[in-house]
Amino acid sequence: MTRRRVALKVDCDTLEGTREGVPRLLEILEARGIRATFYFTLGPDRSGLAIRRIFTRRGFLTKMIRSRAPSLYGWRTMLYGTLLPAPMIGARCEKELRAAASAGHETGVHGWDHVGWHDGLDRMSLEAIARDYGAAHAEYLRIFGAPARSSAAPGWTASARSLQVQEERALLHTSDTRGGTPFFPSAGGTAFGTLEVPTTLPTLDETLAWPELAGGDAAQRTFFRRAVRGTEVHTIHAEVEGRSKALLFSAILDDWAADGVAFVTLSEIARESLARRERVPVRQLSRTRLPGRGGEVATGWPEAEAARG
């Protein structure tokens, strides 16, 4: 029988999500004895600038309307970097970041300027990518006192140049892509040696925008209960599951636990794969579109995402 396991990947994109959502998620996870992997954005919160995606990313406006984005993320977040100054997340949220590590969770780097990377990576030079990525790692080191062992690209946005910069960090693994099993990415004619552990399940902020799941929490719970087929990586967002959707997320976790689903961490999956390194495939990095998400995301398994969709 196939083991059903879920690794929870927690993306912390914004000041409000980190300050309010992380403590709530720590409570939810502690109550259930679950360890997760938290990825922190550490530089300026310029979330208000994401409004530009209405004009640059197909499907973004539809997603925002269907998912009721203001209720998910909050109005302050949607104004940071425009009408409100962009706060520095790492400097403002050191207590919340350290609390995640103190509670026994894994932590890693999500990014420095989340919106800047997500929307502008393809226009960034190698030097600019190195500065941005380096700033995030330096801030992580300052806060935690030790280097990060993994990172996860904002918005699953990766390129040959970003992989080149990541490779210099000697990380245990990354989690930059969507779909499929762990692999070693290849891009720009180079095969990279840092293991990639993809997110495999749809995210809640995506499924909330699916018309077929418009039946409310019950429909969401039924979908996620049936979605776990083997070993899955499920990305949640501190801004969503740690705030307005905390009760729904708690119910999804309880449904999985009732069905015998086990919880593991991303590093456990990575170490299992690296123990059989010769069996890990090399996959070409490409881009794909996902239902409920505006724009494209990186993937090494486009056929896996097509099959799941």
In terms of quaternary structure, the protein is single chain
The total count of helices amounts to 15
Largest sheet, strands/sense/barrel: 5 strands, parallel
Number of strands: 13
> What portion of residues is helical?
40-55%
Kindly provide the radius of gyration, computed on alpha-carbon positions and rounded to a whole number of angstroms. 18 Å
The mean pLDDT is 91
Question: What distance separates the N and C termini?
Answer: 24 Å
Which stretches are low in confidence, meaning pLDDT under 50 for 5 or more residues running? 52-56, 59-65
For this entry, give a set of tags.
single chain; alpha/beta; 42% helix; 17% strand
Tell me what the structure shows:
By secondary structure, the chain is of the alpha/beta class. It has 15 helices and 13 strands. The strands form 4 sheets. Strands 1, 2, 3, 9 and 10 form a 5-stranded parallel sheet that branches. A 3-stranded parallel sheet has the order 4-5-8, with helices on one face. The protein starts with a strand and ends with a helix. Residues 52-56 and 59-65 have low confidence and may be disordered.
